[in-house]
Amino acid sequence: MSATPYQDIFAGMIELSLGTAARILAAYPASAAAFARLSRTFTAAERKRAKLAQDGIQVPPIMIISTTEVCNLSCAGCYACCHEKKSGEEMSHEQVEKLLDEASELGVSIVMLAGGEPLLSHDWLETMGCHEEMLGIVFTNGTLFDENRCKWFDGHRHMIPTFSLEGNQLQTDTRRGAGVYEKVNEAMIHLLKGGIPFGISLTVTSQNIDSLLREESVREYIHKGCRLFMFVEYVPVEKGSEPMVLSKADKKRLNDFAVASGKQYPALFIPFPGDEERYDGCLAAGRGFVYVSADGDLEPCPFAPFSDTNLKHVTLREGLTSGLLTRVRQNHHLFKEGEGGCALWHNREELTRLLHP
Fold first, then answer.
1. Peptide bond preceding 273: is omega within 30 degrees of 0, i.e. cis?
2. 3-state secondary structure string, 55-85?
3. How far is residue 108's CA from residue 103's CA, in Å, rounded to a whole number?
C-alpha cells in the first residue's frame, strides 16, 4: 500500500492551509513562528505516513479527540448528549501522554480537542501543549475562559482556541443557554487584547445558513480577532431534527462561500465535511481523520459511535489496523452521503453490519 491520489490531495490541502495561516498571522509574530514550524514538521510527518502506508498502516493526518464527556452546558441537539453516555473510565494521564506521543511518532499533524468541554480536561491540554510539532485546535463553548486561560494560550501558540457558536446572540443563546454569547464575546476581547488569534466553529443548519453566510458577519469576527472560520454541517443525531440538515444546494452554497471568503479576508475558512468528492468520498475511519472517545474507543467519526478497539489496551498503530476501520476503508464506496453532514451516520445500518460481519 502507498499513498493514494486522494491522500496526496488532502495532504497538499493541509500543507497549503498551514502556509496560508503563517502568512495570515504575520501580524502575530509568535503565532506566525509557530505555524512556520508546523509547516516544516508537517512535511516530516507526511513522510512518516507515506512510509507506514507501504507497510499497510494508514495513518490519518488528523485525529479528533473527545477529551471528556463532562460539560458545563447542555446544548439542544448536541451529538455528545444525544449519543448514549459510555460507562468506561476516561483515559488516565499516562494513557493520554502515551497516545499523543504515539500520534506524533506515527505522523499525525493535527489534533482536534473536543468534548464535552475540553477546558475541563487538564491532562489533554497540558500534554498537547508540550507537542509543538502538532497543531492543536481546542473546541470550547468559551464560558470558562478567563485571563489565565488567555495567558496559557499565549504561551502555546500552536494551540488555537475555537469557540462554538450558532450565529448571532439570539441563535447562540437559544441553543446553548442564556448569556453564553456574551461570555464568548468577553473571551474574544481578552484574546484580542493579548494579541492571540482564535477561531470560531459554526454549526450550519437550514435554519441559520442565511444569517451565517453574510460578509457582515465575517467582517465583524475578523475585527474581533478571529482568523479561523469552521463551518460544520448539522448532523441530525437528534430524532425529529431532520428538517435542519442542509440541502445539496445549500452545501454547494456553503463551500462556495468558504472559497470566496478565503480569497477576500485574512482568515482560513473551512467547511466540514466539505467537498468530499475530490477525496473520493468520506474521509473518516483513518482515510483522512479518526476519532477517539473520552474512554479510549477508536471510532471512525465523532458522529458514528461504533468501535471494536480501545486505546487503553492497544497502541494507536495497532488500533488503526482494527477490523472495523479496515472494513470501513475497504467499503467506503458504500457510504454515500444522503441527508445530513455525515455519510456514516446516514448509513449507520451498514456500519453496524461491518462492526459485526
1. yes
2. CCCCCCCEEEEECCCCCCCCCCCCHHHHCCC
3. 5
CA angle, residues 255, 261, 265, in degrees to nearest 5? 155
Per-residue pLDDT, 1 = 42
CA distance 111 to 125: 11
Name which of 72-81, 102-111, 214-223, 275-284 the model is least confident about. 72-81
Amino acid 84 reads E
CATH of residue 196's domain is: 3.20.20.70
Neighbours of 72 (CB within 10 A): 13
H-state helical runs in the chain:
5-24, 29-54, 79-82, 93-106, 122-129, 147-154, 169-176, 180-193, 209-212, 215-224, 248-264, 316-319, 323-330, 343-346, 348-355
Counted domains in the chain: 1
Residue 81 inside a domain? The answer is no
- The pTM score is 0.92
Distance from C-alpha of 196 to C-alpha of 151, rounded to nearest angstrom: 9
- Tell me, yes or no, whether 273 lies in a domain: yes
CA dist list (Å): 91 to 94, 101, 162, 208, 242: 8, 14, 23, 36, 34
79 in any annotated domain = no
C-alpha cell at 235: 448532523
The size of the chain, in residues, is: 357
Torsion of CA 26, 162, 119, 156, to 10 degrees: -10
74 in a structural domain: no
Closest CA to 115 of 164, 161, 75, 69: 69
The rounded distance, in Å, linking the Cα atoms of 228 and 311 is 31
Domain span at residue 171?
5-54+61-67+86-355
Which contacts of 300-304 are long-range, i.e. CB under 8 A and separated by 24 or more positions?
Answer: 300/324, 300/325, 300/328, 300/344, 300/351, 301/342, 301/344, 301/345, 302/64, 302/66, 302/79, 302/114, 303/79, 303/235, 303/237, 303/341, 303/342, 303/344, 303/345, 304/342, 304/344, 304/345, 304/348, 304/351
**Mean pLDDT along residues 49-57:** 92
Residue with cell 444525544: 82
Q: Which of 207, 137, 113 is nearest to 168 (CA)?
A: 207
